[in-house]
């Protein structure tokens, strides 16, 4: 009888610890406001109905899209991508649905049509969100830039890079040790000085350009997208590390399905083309 009492106490103690563990985990990470599972009530098809602030997710200028050759206009006068980045202190964080690197101060900017957009964050999606002629790649990096406006409604532009499996990505290689020790959701960890110019190094000069939106709620439209045409490489281990570092209900994929183009123009800058734009 005495042994049974000890056994019962032990069982109760284990159950209590388990409940406390999962309760703490729930408080730490919280229930996701939206998800990527197609058949889920919080999946991409329902984002625009989950909150009134997310109504733009049902808009007609949504991202990502398929960069189809038969819809692309070659525009030589778009000009070379004018960027000016500089090393700056940065932090890394687990945002639940992705891993993000944020710069604490001015890390430089990109110039589009005379407007300066300052680099804010970089994050990753797996597999890629944008596709080229229907092909989805293994990873996509987004560099989010913001241009402050007097009316408080800031302008946003995003530079995207697509990756296929192959040699390790040098930028992710530098971040590997920090990703392995990623903090809990909503906590940031300093990773020292990071040079964002290394991200696009050897990235090629050709790029796609179109008007779209943020690819996650609130899906704000009016975002200028610049997608590097050159496909970079990333190792399977690096993608696995990113997956394993976020919450399990997001780990398998965090890519929004391709959206309808709705007669939007897709432009391609090719410095070798001197002809009049064609379709």
TrEMBL record:
Q: Name one GO biological process term.
A: one-carbon metabolic process
* Protein location: Plastid, Chloroplast stroma
Entry's EC annotation: 4.2.1.1
SMART domains registered for this protein in UniProt: Carb_anhydrase
Pfam families recorded? Carb_anhydrase (PF00194)
| Major place of residence | plastid
Question: What cofactor requirement does the entry state?
Answer: Zn(2+)
Q: So which domain of life are we looking at? A: Eukaryota
Q: Which PROSITE patterns match?
A: ALPHA_CA_1, ALPHA_CA_2
Spans through the membrane: 6-25
Q: List GO terms (cellular component aspect).
A: chloroplast stroma
* Keywords annotated in UniProt: Lyase, Membrane, Metal-binding, Transmembrane, Transmembrane helix, Zinc
Q: Which residues form the Alpha-carbonic anhydrase domain?
A: 32-270
MF terms (GO), sorted A to Z: carbonate dehydratase activity; zinc ion binding
Q: Which reaction does it catalyse?
A: hydrogencarbonate + H(+) = CO2 + H2O
Report the function annotation for this chain: Reversible hydration of carbon dioxide.
Tell me its family: Belongs to the alpha-class carbonic anhydrase family.
* Protein's name according to its UniProt entry: Carbonic anhydrase
